[in-house]
Amino acid sequence: MSEGSKGSLLAFGQVVIGPPGSGKTTYCHGMQEFMGRIGRKVTVVNLDPANEAMPYQCGVDIAELITLPDVMENLKLGPNGGLIYCMEYLEANFDWLQEKLAAFRGHYYLFDCPGQVELYTHHEALKNVFAQLAKWNFRLAAVHLVDSHYCTDPGKFISVLCTSLSTMLHVELPHVNVLSKMDLIEQYGKLAFNLDYYTEVLDLSYLVDHLASDPFFRNYRRLNEKLVEVIEDYSLVSFVPLNVQDKESMRQVMQAVDKANGYSFGDQEHRSLEALMSAAVGADFHFTSTLAVQEKYVQSQDKALEEEVMDL
C-alpha cells in the first residue's frame, strides 16, 4: 500500500475469476512468480474454500475462516450451495478479512476466487466483498479466465461471450478477459477462423453462419442471432491470449491489468517513461501477442497438413 494523491492509503491488485478448470490457481502461481522477479511484492489471497492443494505461497487463506467440506458435512449442502454459504459467511466476517490483509501492507494482492459461475453473474456476496475492498481503498481489476478450447466450438464460444458479458456487468470492476492455456490450443482442434477473430470478437455473424451448418444448431439460428446482437450492442467483450509458461505473454497480461486498475499510473514503483508508455499503448501489445500465438498455431496446422499429405 502507498499514499494516494489525497493522502489515503491505496492498495492494488486483481481478483482472478472464471469457471472451474480455467486455470485460476495456476495463473495466480505464475503471476506471483513473475511479479516477484521484477521486484513487486505480491501476496496471494485464497478466497476459494474448496482449494486444498495450492502451489503458490499463500498469504491469506479463507480456510482459516471456513472450508467447503465442513459446510457440506455440517449443513448437509451440496458443493454449489456450500460455496454460496461460504461466500455469504465471508461477507458477514469482513473484520477477519481486513485484519488478515492489513498484515501485508505495501503488497500487490492476487485474489484467487472460487470457480462457481453463479457467484459472478447474479449472486451478490462476492460482489459485495469486492465493493467492501474498494471502500478500504483497494484498486482492483477483475481478471476473467476462459479456457481457450472453447474457441474450437462456435456454440460454446457464444456461450462464453454471454457469460463474460454478464460477469462484466454484474461484478462492476475494471475487467480483463483472458483466453488461458493458449499453449494447448492446437491440441483442441482446428479453429474456424483466425485467432484474432476470437480475441477481438469481430463480426459474429460469421460465427452464426458457421453454426447454421450444424443440423442441431440450425434450428436455433434465430436465438443465436439475438444472443450475438446483445454481445455486439454492448461491445465490451474482448480477450487477451495467455500462456502462463511464456514470459512475454505474462508481461502483456500484467500490463493490461495494470492499466485497468490504475497501477501503471501510481507511485508504487519508479518506472521509466518508456515502461509507462508501453503500458499505455492500448491495443498494440494485444495485437502483437495475438499475432505471435496465431503464427505458432498456423505453423502447427501447416505441419499437420504436411504430415497428412505425406501419409497419402
Q: What does this protein look like?
A:
- The protein is α/β, with parallel strands linked by helices and 312 residues long.
- Helices cover 53% and strands 14% of the residues.
- It has helices at residues 24-37, 68-75, 79-91, 94-102, 118-121, 125-135, 154-171, 185-188, 195-199, 205-212, 215-218, 221-234, 247-261, 273-280, 283-311, and strands at residues 2-3, 9-17, 42-46, 58-61, 108-112, 138-147, 175-180, 240-241.
- Residues 1-7, 266-277 and 279-291 have low confidence and may be disordered.
- α10 (205-212) packs antiparallel against α12.
Structure at a glance:
The protein is α/β, with parallel strands linked by helices and 312 residues long.
Give me the secondary-structure topology.
Layout: E1 2-3, E2 9-17, H1 24-37, E3 42-46, E4 58-61, H2 68-75, H3 79-91, H4 94-102, E5 108-112, H5 118-121, H6 125-135, E6 138-147, H7 154-171, E7 175-180, H8 185-188, H9 195-199, H10 205-212, H11 215-218, H12 221-234, E8 240-241, H13 247-261, H14 273-280, H15 283-311
Parallel strand pairs: 2-5, 2-6, 3-4, 3-5, 6-7, 7-8
Antiparallel strand pairs: 1-2
Helix pairs in contact: 2-3, 3-6, 7-12, 10-12
| Main sheet properties | 8 strands, mixed
Q: For the residues shown, what is the average pLDDT?
A: 83
In total, how many beta strands?
A: 8
For this structure, the quaternary state is: single chain
Shape annotation: globular
Work out the strand percent: 5-15%
List the secondary-structure elements in sequence, H or E.
Answer: EEHEEHHHEHHEHEHHHHHEHHH
Query: Which residues form runs of ≥5 with pLDDT under 50?
Result: 1-7, 266-277, 279-291
Count the helices. How many?
15
Work out the helicity level.
40-55%
Gyration radius, to the nearest Å? 21 Å
Instruction: Give the termini distance in whole angstroms.
Output: 63 Å
Helix and strand composition category: alpha/beta
